[in-house]
UniProtKB/TrEMBL annotation:
Any Pfam family hit: SUFBD_core
Record-level GO BP terms: iron-sulfur cluster assembly
Family stated for the protein in its record: Belongs to the iron-sulfur cluster assembly SufBD family.
Source organism of the structure: Candidatus Nitrosocosmicus oleophilus
UniProt domain SUF system FeS cluster assembly SufBD N-terminal: residue ranges: 94-170
Protein name: FeS cluster assembly protein SufB
Polar residues composition bias: residue spans: 215-225
Matches recorded under PANTHER family: FES CLUSTER ASSEMBLY PROTEIN SUF, UPF0051 PROTEIN ABCI8, CHLOROPLASTIC-RELATED
Span of domain SUF system FeS cluster assembly SufBD core: 235-432
Region entry Disordered, spans: 206-232
Domain of life, source organism: Archaea
Length: 494
């Protein structure tokens, strides 16, 4: 094992699986990128450094292992049974538990594999797309870490003109020995293709808390299985870099449901490179982790490119959420929007950061960025830092942000209608989130509603196809998806 605090380009091979071999160009790339990691601060931008929650991360307590064996919990076994017949992947740490690609789709060219297998079997394809989209690894310390020291990850290639009706399911969990993991994931949607990917993120003890909440005997067995690790001083952490390449006229939806346990540090960098007349859609529900730091960059390279990022955050206890979403307009007549809403309770913290950049050749572009938070009690905190950088004229760019406490008059009104105080709060929160959730499809709304309900009532944060999920899904299918143009409220940038 090796600590994060000791990781460098000279010993990066120590965290890689002993059973895996890589092309020489990848190992050279690893070392070159990782050399930048140690020289960068946790927050590169001085504008954000004083707000950073990364002080929670303790690099000397974060350990990586090169062992690729792992046991699967009962909850994950049930989850596997529910997704087994769909295009799907289940990863635990750096171990591959399950990969399934339907034969009909495989014959048409769909590739779903680990990043290691992709570098072996599709090396030129991976190399080509990595080189086509040059990244400045000095813009973020953990972008450099995830792009160089990754131990596992997935690779998805949707071939030209393929329309995948069923979502591709990605389930990831950290190992039960409290070791940490670094993943690098790549998705390529080739020209004219269309697909949806659903990513679920869990920690090792997500399943233990699930069992302990309902069955003490199972909880005891699980704690015995963990052995001395139950009192271990390790800090369980998950680091990820995700790159989505959306080729001309393609459409890609990427849904993330983050349900890690309340001791985990989760740091994710996501980048989308959107080409001519293509569309990238991010939908996220952030519920778990002690610290959840998600940074999303949507780069609209080609003319007519579109990107949207819709996120719902629910923080309780001492959780901290650090959400960044940036829109980079490079091509002519591009359109981007970011909508983030946070609900913060107890002593939880929420930070939203966003930047709209409209480059000099991006005339006729439109962009909208909004971050809003609601505080459920006085101990909760929220901040929002939106920004604009405009290098040309004849564009529309708007940003907005707000932080407010829950309205006592609204609570009083609902209590007068027969609701208790807690139910009144929930109705107000539902009204706060509803304008955002209606922009999503019924399945996304159902999954987020299910996790939201579980967190509010203290139940395990894991998707299950139970009666509650079926009821929620039935309700959501009867609702509509909003199609109104969000840019109607724009002002003309001058």
């Amino acid at each position: 094992m090796i600590q994060l605090s000791l990781l460098s380009e000279n010993n990066v091979h120590e965290i890689l699986s002993k059973n895996e071999s890589e092309p020489q160009w990848m190992m050279s790339s690893r070392k070159a990128i990782l050399s930048k990691f140690s020289g960068l601060p946790n927050e590169v931008s001085p504008l954000y450094s004083k707000y950073s929650g990364l002080t929670v991360l303790e690099p000397n307590k974060v350990y990586f292992s090169n062992e690729n064996t792992s046991s699967i919990s009962k909850d994950l076994e049930m989850r596997l049974e529910e997704i087994r017949s769909s295009p799907s992947v289940l990863l635990i740490g750096s171990s591959v538990v399950h990969i399934f690609v339907p034969k009909a789709l495989s014959k048409k060219g769909l590739i779903i594999s680990t990043i290691q297998d992709a570098m072996k079997n599709n090396s030129e394809l991976v190399k080509k797309y990595l080189l086509d989209n040059s990244i400045n690894y000095e813009e973020d310390r953990f972008l450099a870490l995830g792009s160089s020291a990754f131990q596992s990850g997935f690779f998805i290639y949707i071939p030209r003109n393929m329309m995948i009706e069923e979502p591709i399911r990605i389930v990831y969990s950290l190992k039960d020995d409290r070791t940490s993991s670094i993943c690098r994931n790549i998705v390529i949607a080739d020209e004219g293709s269309k697909g949806t990917i659903v990513q679920e993120l869990y920690s090792s003890s997500t399943t233990f808390s699930s069992s302990s909440s309902s069955n003490p005997e199972v909880s005891k067995t699980n704690n015995e299985a963990k052995g001395n690790d139950a009192g271990d001083n390790r800090q369980e952490s998950y680091f990820e870099v995700l790159e989505c390449i959306v080729k001309p006229a393609a459409e890609l939806e990427f849904i993330t449901l983050q349900s890690m346990n309340s001791d985990t540090v989760c740091v994710v960098n996501r980048k989308a490179f959107v080409e001519k007349d293509a569309k990238m859609s991010w939908y996220s529900g952030m519920f778990g982790a002690r610290l959840c730091r998600f940074k999303t960059d949507s780069v609209m390279k080609g003319s007519g490119a579109r990107a949207e990022d819709v996120e719902i955050v629910f923080g309780t206890n001492n959780q901290s959420f650090d959400i960044s979403s940036n829109l980079d307009h490079i091509g002519f007549s591009t359109r981007g929007k970011v909508l983030v809403k946070s609900i913060v309770k107890d002593a939880a913290k929420s930070l939203f950061k966003g930047m709209i950049k409209i480059r000099k050749d991006a005339q006729a572009s439109e962009s909208y960025l909004a971050g809003h938070a609601i505080l459920l009690n006085k101990g909760a905190q929220a901040d929002a830092i939106p920004g604009l950088e405009i290098e040309t004229n004849e564009v529309k760019a708007t940003h907005s942000a707000s932080v407010s406490q829950i309205d006592e008059e609204q609570i009083f009104y609902l209590m007068c209608k027969g609701l208790d105080r807690e139910s009144a709060k929930r109705e107000i929160i539902n009204g706060f989130v509803e304008p955002l959730s209606r922009k999503m499809g019924p399945f996304i709304r159902a999954w987020i509603s299910y996790l939201f309900e579980n967190k509010w009532t203290g139940k395990p944060l894991m998707l299950k196809g139970d009666e509650v999920m079926e009821q929620i899904l039935e309700v959501e299918k009867s609702r509509y998806k909003e199609t109104a143009d969000i840019f109607e409220k724009h002002y003309k940038y001058r």
